[in-house]
UniProtKB/TrEMBL annotation:
This is Esterase. PANTHER family: LIPASE (PTHR11610), LIPASE DOMAIN-CONTAINING PROTEIN-RELATED (PTHR11610:SF173). Keywords: Secreted, Signal. GO terms for cellular component: extracellular space. Residues 79-331 form the Lipase domain. It is found in: Secreted. InterPro entries: AB_hydrolase_fold, Lipase, TAG_lipase.
Amino acid sequence: MVRRLYNFLMFSSVVSAMYSSKAMEGYPTGYLADCPGGDREAIISRKTLKYLTLTVIGKGNIQNVKKTRYTYFQMKSLAKDPDIDFKKKTAIYVGGYLDSPNFPFASVLGPAYKKQGYNALLLDTNKFTTMEYPVAVRYMRPVGQHVAEMLVNLTKEGLDPKKVELIGLSLGGQTVSFIAKNFKRMTGVTLGRITGLDPSGPCFRNLGPDDRLDQADADFVDVISTNIDGFGMAAPVGHVNFYVNGGEFQPGDILWMPCNVLCSHIRSYTIWLAALQNPDSFIAMQCESVQQAREKNCYDNKPMVTNVLGLETDHNKTGIFFLATQNNFPYYLGTNGLKREYEFFHAHMKEITDNDPMKM
Ligand SMILES: *[C@@H]1O[C@H](CO)[C@@H](O)[C@H](O)[C@H]1NC(C)=O
Ligand SMILES: *[C@@H]1O[C@H](CO)[C@@H](O)[C@H](O)[C@H]1NC(C)=O
């Protein structure tokens, strides 16, 4: 017994004297990586299809904007809505778990796209996500199929699939994938663009490209990652993948207290909203790997390849990008974001560690 304790202590002291490494520590598997049974078929009856609706955003500001709702069965009427013009691009926002077009995310993002000259549509999946999360995950597959049917009928009324941009937040970032995959299966045509705002990792992160968001889903897929080991996913599944502040946790109000899992996850949305209003301001640098992005260590790559997060992203500069931001809206750092000394933790840690409160 004493000998075992002695051996244990000897061994521990050997381990603690070694420098750590990722090989020794291991890598995170991520929150709820697998959901056994999550691929079981879910069926939406014809009676409940009416809860699948698209809301057209009209003119007006956020408080008094005109909103007109069309059910699954009313696509012909939607195409004739006075606020729809299929010569323009069409943005469709798809919310996450428990989200609704009446809640703030959609209420703010819809008018923001309208202001950019888009037809702005909000998909309501609320009825199909108001249940336990792993069940909602199962429902996103048939939701994807039925929304694709809605889009196919809209193309008969003049919608150009190449002018369609799906924006999905969290679970919505996976729902948009199922919409696009079904649309492609039914028409042979890929949609123009998908923007994934920290697409859900729970129940998805270990699945293959047929069962989660993937770059094959649209002509261009960009992913904004803000909480990759928590509610988001770590894999670079888009053409352009932004790992904001390394993608793990976002800076909060107190330097050494990051905003928590949900706060970091939602940051993908607020950053996207800020990028709609500040199109050239979120300048990111290319990394060699997700690991390098996590370590915020892409500053010295030569040559430095940059890309901008937002509607102006250069589609030809693909890969993994690190984006540094501040902790408050509108978050962007402009070209300062390309300098290591402006990286949030680096910039503010020294102010704190220089402080000696007991010195008097
Ligand atoms: C699409 O159009 C076909 C033919 O008019 C109709 O039978 C079907 O119900 C429509 N589906 C949707 C989702 O609008
Ligand atoms: C991207 O590449 C395509 C095809 O090579 C080219 O036509 C297009 O102009 C390029 N776009 C930009 C922004 O460089």
